[in-house]
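Q: I'm writing up a methods section and want to include an example of the input and output format. Could you take the sequence below and give the corresponding predicted structure tokens, formatted cleanly so I can copy it straight into the document?
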Amino acid sequence: MPEPIFTLLRRTYAFKKTTDCDIHLDVYSSEEMAKISPAVVWIHGGALIMGSRENGQSHAARYVDAGYKVISIDYRLTPETKLPEIIADVRDAFGWIRSNADELGVDPAKDPEFFTPYCPDQNIDANYPPTLLLHGTDDTDVPYELSVRMQNRLKEAGVDHEMVTIEGGGHGFDGRWWDPRVKAAFARVLGFLDNHLN
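A: Here is the clean output for your methods example:
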């Protein structure tokens, strides 16, 4: 996949203030983008104990090149912060994004994200949003079988979905951009977004 040729722009906002800190998000775009664009919200990994919104920067250019703004959010981490507060941070980020959609230049009506707080496969019904699953079969952090179970629940509920399996892929396989399997997976991600947002 050729590297995008444009200047990646980043704007940083504080979307939430707590007694201890401000919590930020970054909005990635380019001057060539449409004024109002669909957005991908990037929630970084790290088992809730590490990571930050900066993790989204290495992926942002490819989505921006395809016409999507990328909004990479921070949230407070454990053990200092308990799970309900972390969930509230993510919910508040989505609420802030929708409330500031005009300033950000994003279309909130084309938001494919849906945040479920604890166990996603127990919260699926016919109103669940279109869902794309990507998982490596050799993931030792999050068992591959969990995505298979999620896929089955989506199918039972009649939810539009796709599952991309990376044979032999481990946790964090998406960082291996030179791997043909990852390139093919990313192409399916863009196809999925195009089908549901454009």
